[in-house]
């Protein structure tokens, strides 16, 4: 549909820069996986068994880019960070076999699943959806996408987050309960994956609250850093 055929201006599409180029990766959907590191499952009071993955979504317009200043969100007194590896999909499909899953990946990046933890926990206890706790404005800071052809498949290596220079999360991607190929394969059983989808693959232990003025720096081996600051 042309712009002049719309009754209002079409919303801008979320774009992530592609590292080392002037190109962008257009984002269609943001999928997230919960409880994917044993130590994080423990700190959240969950069962350590290898249960089926928990999937949820964030809106594409919740993305904010590296270097951004993020306003402290309303309706929460317990605003948390969760550092995650981002997987960017180049070719879609349904029921993708685990053995073929890596062929569908364009590249990798660093993301933050920012969470209104008090709302998430209250909603979860009531058996209600998590959207108010997870899918709010500015809840998905993301760094550039690094193409597989440059960095290979990022399946292990350090994942680390500091708040004002103090280490808060420090783990290894190899400790994921569900590995990247398994995440892609399982997700494609529930949804038809399409080019432009990104997947946040879960966070290690150490999640915690932030307050206005805090600077968050996330790093993953081969992918550089993601830096954001919380404003009032």
UniProtKB/TrEMBL annotation:
Keywords (A to Z) from UniProt: Hydrolase, Metal-binding
GO MF terms, alphabetically ordered: acetylpyruvate hydrolase activity; metal ion binding
Matching InterPro entries: Fumarylacetoacetase-like_C, Fumarylacetoacetase_C_sf
Domain Fumarylacetoacetase-like C-terminal: 30-230
Pfam families: FAA_hydrolase (PF01557)
PANTHER family from the UniProt entry: ACYLPYRUVASE, FLUTATHIONE S-TRANSFERASE
Entry protein name: FAA hydrolase family protein
Provenance organism: Microvirga makkahensis
């Amino acid at each position: 549909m042309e712009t002049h055929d719309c009754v209002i201006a079409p919303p801008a599409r979320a774009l992530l820069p592609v590292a080392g180029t002037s190109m962008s990766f257009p984002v269609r959907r943001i999928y997230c996986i919960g409880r994917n590191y044993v130590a994080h499952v423990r700190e959240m009071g969950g069962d350590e068994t290898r249960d089926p993955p928990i999937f949820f979504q964030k809106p594409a317009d919740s993305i904010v880019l590296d270097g951004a200043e993020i306003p402290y969100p309303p309706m929460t007194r317990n605003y948390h960070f969760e550092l995650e590896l981002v997987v960017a999909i180049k070719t879609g499909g349904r029921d993708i076999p685990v053995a073929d899953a890596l062929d569908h990946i364009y590249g990798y990046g660093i993301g933050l699943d920012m969470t209104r933890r008090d709302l998430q926990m209250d909603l979860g206890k009531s058996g209600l959806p998590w959207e108010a706790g997870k899918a709010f404005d500015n809840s998905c800071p993301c760094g550039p996408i690094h193409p597989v052809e440059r960095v290979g498949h990022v399946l292990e290596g350090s994942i680390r987050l500091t708040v004002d220079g103090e280490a808060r999360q420090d783990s290894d991607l190899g400790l994921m309960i569900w590995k990247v190929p398994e995440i892609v394969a399982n997700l494609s059983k529930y949804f038809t994956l399409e080019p432009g989808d990104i997947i946040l693959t879960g966070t290690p232990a150490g999640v915690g609250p932030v307050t206005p003025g805090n600077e968050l720096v996330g790093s993953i081996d081969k992918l550089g850093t993601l830096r954001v600051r919380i404003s009032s």
